[in-house]
Amino acid sequence: MRGYGQTDRPEAIDQYTVFHMLGDMVGVLDALGAEQSVIAGHDWGAAVAWHAAQLRPDRFRAVIGLSVPFRARGSARPTTLMPQTDDAIWYQLYFQQPGVAEAEYDRNARAIFHAGKISISGDAPLGTRPFGMVPRHGRPFRWDAPAPPLPAWLTEADVEFYTAEFTRTGFRGGLNWYRNIDRNWELLAPFDGLKVSVPGLYIAGARDPVQKFPGMDRHIADLAKFVPQLRRAIILPGCGHITQEERAGEVSAAMIDFLRGLATERVALA
Fold it and tell me: From the first residue on, what is the mean pLDDT of each consecutive set of 10 residues in the chain (270 residues)?
């Protein structure tokens, strides 16, 4: 994913549009000499995967989305629909101004990948502040709050690795994805109403904050309208946002079952 890990991290915000990402995914197939692939993604990666399957079904013959379902384009610019009050704004609005979130995130990577990951997981402690709204004044998080105990799916080695990587790269690349939300909405206008025509699988956690996004319940209920070949929509009880880490065994089993089903279908068609 562009902007993360050892990938390129262009400075220009407009180098992180959905079309740049789809080009990267097609480029991976070309580099591997693969004519087609099943594409899978989580969170922003899920959005890329859904659009890859939607716009290039000739290259992506099936799609697996974790946490984030395929979302119809909608009739309004996305940032105009995001909640805000006199005291707080939706976190994706907070991310829009370059440099603001970086100033907080870059020096608090360890807290983000320890307490932050846990706070959006199924193991979030009782009383955790509702996800999504960021105070207009003051700091967005209590960086100095005592870190909760690590759950079984998150090790100290994991936290160390994430912390070291994002300390090295900074958060700008990842945040630039959010800064293209409205631009992506504009670019996708010619494809409004186009369905995902290939087989799909959706997996999410019942405690995932994404499930509480405005209008998300409607999107998930209507998912088969936009992905007519949706095979299953699996909601894992007690699981949060870090789907493939929190429930690695169940997610892997569901993905393998989906892939086996595709193979069976291809044999039957042949």
Answer: 93 97 97 98 97 98 97 93 93 96 95 94 80 86 84 97 96 97 98 97 96 84 95 96 97 98 77
Alpha-carbon torsion (174, 175, 178, 183), positive or negative: negative
Alpha helix positions (H), 171-270: 172-178, 181-187, 216-221, 223-226, 243-246, 248-269
> Could you list the active site residues?
43, 241
Give the predicted TM-score (pTM) of the model: 0.94
Q: Please spell the DSSP secondary structure of 158-180, one letter per residue.
A: HHHHHHHHHHHH-SHHHHHHHTT
Structural domains of the chain in order of their starting residue, each with its CATH number = 13-269 (3.40.50.1820)
For residues 111 and 174, what is the distance between their CA atoms, to the nearest angstrom?
17
Using the CB atoms, write b or e for 225-240: b if 16+ within 10 Å. ebbeebbebbebeebb
